[in-house]
Amino acid sequence: MSNIYESAATTLDLFNTPCLTKVELRVACKGISDRDALSKPDPCVVLKMQSHGQWFEVDRTEVIRSSSSPIFSKVFTIDFYFEEVQRLRFELHDISSHNGLKDADFLGAMECTLGQIVSQRKLSKALLKQGNTAGKSSITVTAEELSGNNDYVELAFSANKLDDKDFFSKSDPFLEIFRVNDDGTGSLVHRTETIMNNLSPVWKSFKVSLNTLCSGDHQRELKCTVYDWDSNGKHDFIGEFQTTFREMKGDTPKPTVFIQWDCINPKYQVKKKNYRNSGVVTLYQCKIIKMHSFLDYIMGGCQIQFTVAIDFTASNGDPRNSCSLHYIHPYQPNEYLKALVAVGEICQDYDSDKMFPAFGFGGQIPPDFKVSNRFALSCINCVCVCVCVCVCVCAGIQGVVEAYQNCLPKIQLYGPTNIAPIIQKVASAASEEMHTKEAMEYFILLILTDGVITDMADTREAIVHASHLPMSVIIVGIGNADFSDMQMLDGDDGILRSPKGEPVLRDIVQFVPFRSFKHASPAALAKSVLAEVPNQVVDYYNNKGIKPKNLPCTRRHFNKTTQPAQIRV
Q1: Is the pLDDT confidence value at 303 over 50?
Q2: The model's pTM
Q3: Largest Cα–Cα distance in the chain?
């Protein structure tokens, strides 16, 4: 085979595509005060992103002359990362001279996160002037996903009357499909299985992304080659043909149910006078599979329901002792608080009411100080707390922090470290969401624990059950305990199974020890534990065939010339 063809990955994971997405932001302002009685302002908006605590300019709009309610045509393009808090600042300036911002009048600013914008699709806020005083002017930022083509296609080929290349048996044919690149080289897209001893093979169907197949260009040339497999690796060439995806999907003047090509051997074509072909290849299935993105679901109204569970077992140490993992230092948050805030600060942007359930486990709680494996932190004084029938939630992540700090003096740390009841609690809520068959709520459970769990069998059973639900579990190991057994729950090293042998439907658990990020920024921890969540959300809904609700009517596509903002928080 010609060496101009370089092999690409031949095995493709249908649902394991990167969730990096580009977002377009459009800006408009209202109610900008006139410069004076005779003239209106000449507004311009400057977009800044925060990196390492400092603001850096990313881009700016055009200047619109004499306008108090400008709608800017400039579009900001930014890379979106769910696992990061991407802080943005929109500054409005009145540029009345040719010196640009140097002599411009500052008219106000608005700060937010990119997550807040995309979760609402349109964010309107007052512009704050110096001293954070709100004026009459406001700014509206609208988000739209700028996505590449994430769709897949399912193809199935067969052949008829292929040339026989073997003396004592029939050919053992397989088919290779190459994408022809802009420089004339080829990349292997797919290689079928080999059908032994058969001149009219029917190959299994396969799935491939349109990006891989044709770089999103439906008219890009595809070269298909049929070989007779030989055990020594020197496969015999049978024939080839050229096509495009446009032709495959029947988008031609004369579409047919099945698309057929003559399989041509160029040498035979030259040498044999009456040569017609070396067989016929038929495409008998071409099905486009629409792949929705994470932002399709978020912008379609899907809410991230965030729940936190905290370990109150005795191995944490007496909270009154400075060596305790639960010790509340007046100036330095403990590891529980650092992990809680790092993850919760991101998740709260995708929950409209920002009311979060927060549970504890392994502690003895008032009034009778019996051990509870699931109690609500904000209801520690409720008479119903022991039976856990009330729905006690906290207002925002700060509310979770306060509930945790307030309940510490009232709880006696005990044990054991059982986390299955917490997983089952959240799974129960996720199960109700599953029955709606709509993409309205996806649940994220953050478990913070200082030791090896003592109900491993029940936990494995609970996780296998939860893998069928719209739910992900994040476990952060606090302190210096040996967490080697916890790696079993994270499916990165193998498939987690229940005690009965049932495998997880999908990988929903992410475990990290906090000590690995002890000297890193909180953002590094959040990025590590949340990076897989967008894929898990998309994986669940696509597997269930659930489309986003209220999907934006337009979804722009980008090409290689698009230049997104490169600053990352």
Answers
A1: yes
A2: 0.72
A3: 98
